[in-house]
Write a structure and sequence with these properties.
By secondary structure, the chain is an alpha/beta fold. The protein folds into 3 domains: about 5-95, Conserved hypothetical protein from pyrococcus furiosus pfu- 392566-001, ParB domain (Alpha-Beta Complex), CATH 3.90.1530; about 105-250, no CATH class; about 260-290, no CATH class. The chain contains 12 helices and 8 strands. It has helices at about 35-45, 70-80, 95-105, 115-130, 170-180, 185-195, 200-205, 215-220, 225-235, 245-250, 260-275, 280-290, and strands at about 10-20, 20-25, 50-60, 65-70, 85-90, 135, 155, 165-170. A hairpin with a 5-residue loop joins strand 3 (about 50-60) and strand 4 (about 65-70). Helix 5 crosses helix 6 (about 185-195) and helix 7 runs parallel beside helix 9 (about 225-235). The longest helix has 18 residues, at about 115-130. The protein is globular, with a radius of gyration of 23 Å. About 30% of the residues are buried.
């Protein structure tokens, strides 16, 4: 896929480069091996749709190598296919521009877990602060004032360790525009990320909870970080299904059994049916739903072939 950071000022030249000259270390996100395998098949059959993006790095002795900016999965697929070269867009970028391009390429990736989305937004906030040091408040307190509400151009955030308590709304405006998401989504995600302790974030990485935005938001709302850690462990282990249940168990109380609603019964029955259905039956169900009128905000789209990052 093309990078979301196309709004960055950039000069580039497209050439074929040896894989041996491209460095892909210190990436913000690890590789999804299943995606690499799928992409390798696609490239073997139809070729590379989008060139990867790299930038030239000159060594002290004068030799030139290239550092990967966007396209880690495409590069890995070429390695899997034992290709000697890959089509590259060699971009002239600053360190800051390269970081932002990599962040934005991840932010627009389909299927990104909400926890990872928060991590990349926090990284983008760091970049924004470096670009606009006069628009970010690093102190824990609002600018002193005698009365009235905070200035309307301030967005109140939970403290992100090593980062910010309040950021100008320009960050949300810019990010929403560049990655094509709503400002509200940006606000909510950064607040959730900031509310989770670093230890809990690390513990949740790669778990099912990392993909559950609702549970992440509830966990982030727990002010006691020790309680937050206990509840997170109970959710990961499956001993608790909800945050309130986890709180009760963490406090040594036996939570009351929740009353099963008609909606719960329907969802459970459908989940059981879905789990037993064949891939073709599931595809038929989704195809049928795609042609129906769905609740506001919901839509089912047929998968489209696209380059992975």
């Amino acid at each position: 896929m093309d990078s979301a950071a196309s709004t960055l000022p950039m000069r580039s030249t497209e050439i074929e480069l040896p894989l041996a000259l491209i460095d892909a270390t210190d990436r913000l996100r690890g590789l999804d091996q299943a995606a690499v395998d799928e992409l390798a098949v696609s490239i073997a059959e139809t070729g590379l749709v989008h060139a990867i993006t790299v930038r030239a790095v000159t060594r002290q002795e004068g030799s030139t190598r290239y550092r990967l900016v966007v396209g880690g999965h495409r590069l890995a697929a070429h390695h899997k296919l034992r290709r000697a070269t890959i089509r590259c867009r060699v971009a002239v970028l600053s360190d800051l521009d390269a970081r932002q391009m990599e962040v934005d390429e991840n932010l627009i990736r389909a299927g990104l877990a909400p926890l990872d989305f928060g991590r990349f937004l926090a990284e983008r906030l760091e970049i924004y602060a470096e670009r606009h040091p006069d628009q970010v408040v690093r102190d824990a307190d609002m600018p002193s004032r005698k009365r009235g509400r905070p200035p309307k151009n301030f967005l109140t955030l939970r403290k992100i360790p090593g980062a910010y308590v309040k950021a100008m709304m320009g960050f949300a405006e810019e990010t929403a525009r560049d990655v094509k998401l709503s400002r509200q989504h940006i606000y909510r995600t950064v607040q959730t990320w900031g509310g989770l302790s670093p230890e809990v974030r690390d513990r949740l990485q790669g778990t099912a909870i990392a993909r559950n935005e609702g549970l992440l938001r509830q966990l982030a709302a727990l002010g006691d970080k020790a309680e937050q850690a206990k509840v997170a462990e109970l959710l990961i282990s499956g001993e608790a299904k909800t945050v309130p249940e986890g709180q009760a168990r963490a406090a040594g109380n036996q939570p009351m059994k929740a009353v099963e609603t008609p909606v719960d019964v329907t969802v459970k029955a459908f989940s059981k049916l879905w789990g037993a259905a064949s891939p073709s039956a599931r595809a038929a169900i989704l195809h049928d739903l795609a042609g129906r009128s769905l609740p506001k905000g919901y839509a089912i789209q047929c998968p489209a072939e696209a380059d992975h990052g």
